[in-house]
Structure formats: C-alpha cells, structure tokens
UniProtKB/TrEMBL annotation:
This is Ribosylpyrimidine nucleosidase. It comes from Dictyobacter arantiisoli. The lineage of its organism: Bacteria, Bacillati, Chloroflexota, Ktedonobacteria, Ktedonobacterales. InterPro entries: I/U_nuclsd_hydro_CS (IPR015910), Inosine/uridine_hydrolase_dom (IPR001910), IUNH (IPR023186), Ribo_hydro-like (IPR036452). CDD domains: nuc_hydro_IU_UC_XIUA (cd02651). Pfam families: IU_nuc_hydro.
Length: 310
C-alpha cells in the first residue's frame, strides 16, 4: 500500500525536485500540494508549483495556495539563492494547470480530519501553513501519522550564523509544530549538505535524454551557481528531496532522538533549532534528528524516480 502524503512547499529549486519525487515514486500517494511563502512570496511559489506540475504532467494532484506571511513576523525570502521568481534559471512555459479555490490551511484540515490517521506531512518550507492549521483545528494533531520536515541545523545555520532558513523564516510556527507531540523527523543541513548534485550526477541525468531530467539539470545549474557565489560550494545541495526520501526509505538517513527547542527570542540565535544532543536538559526527546545520509542510496532512489517521467 502506498504511503499517503501531503507536500507543503515553497518552490524553490530543491522544492521542485522534491515535488517531482513525491508525485512519481511508486511508494507514495501524493494527496495534495500546499504552498507557502518562503523562498519567495506565496503568489510566486504557487505559480512555480503550477509550472512544475504542468511541465511534468502531474495533473491529478490538487495545488492550493497558503499563507503569505509568518504567524507574527514580516515575510523574509531567499532571492539571493532562488532569484526574483523563486525558480530562476529554467525557461518554463505558462502553466495549463490551475490552483484550487480552497486555501491550503483548509485543505490540510479537511484531509487530515477525514483521514484514518495515515497521512504523513512533508513540509519543505516554513511551517506557517501547518502551524496555522493546528491552531485553527487542534483536532487534526492526533490525525497526523508523522511529519518529515526539511529544516534546522544541529550546528551552524545557512541564513544566519545560528539558523537554517525554513525555521528562521517563521520560528513561532516551528515552535508550535515541534511541540505538537506527533512523530517528527527533522532533516537538517547536516544531512542535506551531503546530497550534492556533483558533475557526475549531472552526467547521469543527461544520459536519460528526457524533458524532466533536463529540467532538473537546468535547475541545478542555476542553484549551483547561487551556492558557489553565496556559500562557496562546489556543487548544490538538494535539501528538500531528502525529506521525501526519508519517508520512502526511513533508513536512508541516520538519526538520533533528541529534544529540540526553537529559539524565538535570542539576539544572535533567532530561529535556531536547539538540539539537545547529549541530553543535558533532561527533557524527553521530541524529534528524530538526522545527521548522516546514505548518499549513493539517495541518488539511486531519486534518479530512478526521475527516469519514470517519460
């Protein structure tokens, strides 16, 4: 039986690849795509989701626009990495698909309340939609089978010295979700920085001679140049597909149970995921925190799925 999932995302170059993986892998049943402000405004991330699904002919999955602002803060985006559109680089045609008329938060609430508690949420952007849904309808919380999220870091950040972007963009939302009591797998920078789209990976994609893998190459060329300029990386990391891969193959990520708190007030540490690696707080673990990736397994899983797009 395929695992039911909802992808809550802010496309985004790596979100685009996470969406392609979630929509086509045979172990998953993608019930909905919900968009949120993050890498760019929700208007832009929603349009990008439509473009990706139109390009790949992902036609049976509803796409719903969500929150455009964090719970209490001003919106903060990542144009330095993803460009003004949020998906700069590839030339994409006007999408033929349309958004649903239902708000993403209502989609999350309705699907979870109607479920048998068998849906895994995969957030790959700020956690605003999910936190808002939990606030509005607390009855959804016990209906969530698990959450596999891309976000956070055990050590250093990528948007400040302390914080990873997705958590920093809406730390209050992250604090609410991390405290919800449901099983959470956190896929942090320590994992995703091991998923580098090297030139060898690009060559494997080129050898497929298909439109979707060619689109992924275009994504990675732009993303790679951003990461070279901003971070000095030799190849771009595929953050968000790691959170999807962790649902498909839970052993693909090596992890440890920890207590994780979200810093919402620190002068220098706002948005930090405070990971109690050694149990110093005495608080019970609330998150399964990844720290290593089976790299070859990850790339085989992803590339075999992309090859299914004829």
């Amino acid at each position: 039986m395929r695992q039911k999932i909802i992808l809550d995302c802010d496309p985004g170059h790596d979100d685009a690849i996470a969406l392609l993986l979630a929509a086509r892998h045979p172990a998953l049943e993608l019930l909905a795509v919900t968009t949120v402000a993050g890498n760019q405004s929700v208007e832009k991330t929603s349009l990008n989701a439509l473009k990706i699904c139109s390009l790949a002919h992902i036609e049976q999955v509803p796409i719903s626009k969500g929150m455009n602002q964090p719970l209490i803060r001003r919106a903060r985006h990542a144009a330095d990495i993803h460009g003004d559109s949020g998906l700069d680089g590839p030339a994409l045609p006007t999408p033929y698909l349309s958004l649903t008329s239902q708000h993403a938060v209502d989609v999350l609430i309705d699907l979870l309340l109607q479920s048998d508690g068998d849906i895994i949420l995969i957030p790959t952007g700020p956690l605003t939609n999910i936190a808002t849904a939990m606030r509005r309808a607390p009855a959804i919380i016990p209906k969530i089978k698990a959450i596999s999220l891309m976000g956070g870091a055990i050590s250093v950040g990528n948007v400040t010295a302390s914080a990873e972007f997705n958590i920093w963009a809406d730390p209050e939302a992250a604090a609410l979700v991390f405290a919800c009591g449901r099983p959470i797998t956190m896929v942090p920078l320590e994992v995703t920085h091991q998923a580098l789209a090297t030139e060898a990976i690009m060559q494997r994609l080129q050898a497929m001679h298909q439109a979707v893998p060619d689109f992924v190459i275009d994504l990675m060329r732009y993303f790679g140049e951003s990461y070279r300029q901003v971070f000095g990386f030799a190849a771009p990391p595929l953050h968000d597909p790691c959170a999807v891969a962790a649902v498909i193959d839970p052993d693909i990520i090596v992890s440890k149970d920890m207590h994780v708190d979200i810093e919402t007030r620190g002068e220098w540490t706002e948005g930090r995921t405070v990971c109690d690696l050694y149990g110093k707080t005495g608080l019970p673990p609330n998150v399964q925190v990844g720290y290593a990736l089976h790299v070859e397994r990850f790339w085989d899983l992803l590339l075999e799925t992309l090859a299914l797009y004829a």
